[in-house]
Amino acid sequence: MVVSREKTPTAQETFMQMAQAAGLRGRILVTIGLLILVRLGVFLPIPGIDRQAFSQNIQNTPFIGFLDLFSGGGFSALGIFALGILPYINASIIMQLMTAALPTLEDLQKNEGEAGRRKISQITRYVALGWAILQSIGIAIWVSPFAQNPNQPQFIVMAEVVLALAAGSMFVMWVSELITERGIGNGASLLIFINIVAVLPQSLGSTIELAQSGDSAIVGRVVILLLIFLAMIVGIVFVQEGTRRIPIVSARRQVGRKLYREKSSYLPLRLNQGGVMPIIFASAVLILPASISQFANNPILVQISTYLSPGGPAPWVYIAFYLLMILFFSYFYASLIMNPVDMAQNLKKMGASIPGIRPGRATSEYIERVLNRLTFLGAVFLGLVAIIPTVVESATRVPTFRGFGATSLLILVGVAIDTAKQVQTYVISQRYEGMVKK
User: Fold this and answer.
1) Is the distance from CB of 423 to CB of 18 less than 8 angstroms?
2) What is the arithmetic mean of pLDDT over 50-66?
3) First to last CA, the chain
4) Which residue ranges run through the membrane (predicted)?
5) Listed residue (64, 295, 58, 313) closest to 303, CA to CA
6) In the prediction, which pLDDT does 170 show?
7) What is the C-alpha to C-alpha distance for residues 344 and 248, in angstroms, rounded to an integer?
8) Using CA atoms, how far apart are residues 370 and 364, in angstroms rounded to an integer?
9) Full-prediction pTM beyond 0.85?
10) What is the pLDDT of residues 160-219, one digit of tens each?
């Protein structure tokens, strides 16, 4: 994608358009209404299950905390939206992997245009439905011992749970697509964003109560923790917005009698290509042994999960393995979303080239070298962001923000930046519509 310089709208112009432009105001109101609807659905209970007994059974379960991060507490509360948008995200990741592996899907994405993309979106929905049913069956097997009516057949209890969870997940997926089409965009990301924000008041309230205990040492540690979190947010903004601009020169071309001069632009390569995905994958791999050991009661798995936990007997093992996983998934995800060969071919078709680099293979090799260096720097940054909250919490001994760590911060900042850019895009479109009317 070649980007040319464009004046971005000011904050004053953005807020004026949000207040005055009916189109943008309507999109914002639709988005807010749908987000409130999804949050209300989190508290609707699954029928036939004793939620109080289930809540006591899952206390101090790390896997539940990981799932609650994306459902806003809906999983531990056993709401009908407990699965949330997770099946759709998993289906999207699976389709990205399948598109890179299967030529048929790759041809649909690259050569079939809008019809091909609609077909892939439809397949993604079917995969999300299948994934939601599989997850619902696993949850139904887990929660069936907590049935409110012990005399009711287990099959009926499981069927009710599967139907409620799968239907709730499909409704959330529909809402996310509705926000993308008729709201301000980024539907799936905004749903995760609002679920994480919903947990913030509880963490802030616990922190304020801890600071009001009267101990000056605790107040100092809380202030240090908050300052480090603010510094991390600033760092995340800089890295999320950081790009390497490779200069691009478009050759002269003649259309009819008109001669177009050479144009200079740039090819932006983001420092953090994978966003928050490498941390999510790495966290899932770390939590997996602990989750399996709770059901299997295998002593080997229990020992592995003990060493792979932040408070284990050897914290350096946890830190080293976590960093390696983040590095691996950073390169893996970057290879899925960026293809240097395709980028070189697209530049050649457009009649553009990188100064000093021959078109074709030399261009793809140059882009690949730049991408590898950027991915390594981005992975190092993600590793630091992932480790710092755990280290700071251990040093300050302030546990109220436990669980609200690197993944939450990256998602909050990333989605906020993307949403702001989406709103700016609508403001720019309104600006051009006004120029056309004049």
Assistant:
1) yes
2) 67
3) 31
4) 28-49, 69-89, 126-143, 155-175, 187-205, 217-239, 275-296, 316-338, 374-392, 398-417
5) 313
6) 92
7) 11
8) 10
9) no
10) 889 998 999 899 999 988 998 888 878 888 888 888 788 777 767 777 776 676 666 677
